């Protein structure tokens, strides 16, 4: 049911401006510097639990020109250094296959030799990654930041702000219910809020807890 609800919403492009900062203010400031190539450091590694926003941040950086995003499923060609690319983004480092680890190690060296920039992301500290030791050492070059998850209060405040910006009025109890019963990451919560917005317009009803439950019931019936 939850997955179906998520599928009925249109995903919005990630950007640094749409990332809810919380306790990650310094990290976001640094990533803006990487985006503009003004950072004194040329390497950064960000880590944290699933769904805290690591991929959002890398996708946001990928919107900049002369940038290449690489994930664990990328072809080996994606790891090839290109002088026209000045910022590389390597995601899900803990999932890199052995061949990709070797390619990533080579990419690190070439980026350094050519004064480029590289931001990597993983689920754990670089020293704990299940990758080649030489690659672990490269991951530790430069800056290392943990992406801190928002508190429930921060998530509710952010969703209320987003709703207010769009002129939506949420009845008391809607957001606490979502926080309690569904995925707790901001992307999923925002997607559900978008679905509620459209359902409210479709039914000409206010966004209340009964409307949310009605949407969930309709999603269940559609799924079955």
Secondary-structure element order, as H and E? Answer: HHEHEEHEHEHHHH
CATH superfamily of the largest domain: P-loop containing nucleotide triphosphate hydrolases
CATH topology descriptor of the largest domain: Rossmann fold
Number of helices: 9
Q: What's the level 1 CATH class of the largest domain?
A: Alpha Beta
State the end-to-end CA separation. Answer: 9 Å
The whole-angstrom Rg is 20 Å
Unreliable stretches: 1-10
Q: Calculate the mean pLDDT score and round it.
A: 89
What portion of the residues fall into strands of 2 or more residues? 5-15%
Task: Specify the structural class.
Answer: alpha/beta
SS elements, strand count: 5
- Most strands sheet: 5 strands, parallel
CATH architecture of the largest domain: 3-Layer(aba) Sandwich
Whole-number tally of structural domains: 2
Strand order of the largest sheet: 2-3-4-1-5
How much helicity do the residues have? 40-55%
Shape: elongated
Quick rundown:
Helices cover 46% and strands 10% of the residues. By secondary structure, the chain is an alpha/beta fold.
Q: What does this protein structure show overall?
A:
The chain has 224 residues and is α/β, with parallel strands linked by helices. It folds into two domains: 25-146, P-loop containing nucleotide triphosphate hydrolases (Rossmann fold); 150-223, Helicase, Ruva Protein, domain 3 (Orthogonal Bundle). Helix content is 46%, strand content 10%. The longest helix has 18 residues, at 186-203. It is elongated, with a radius of gyration of 20 Å. The termini are close together. 31% of the residues are buried.
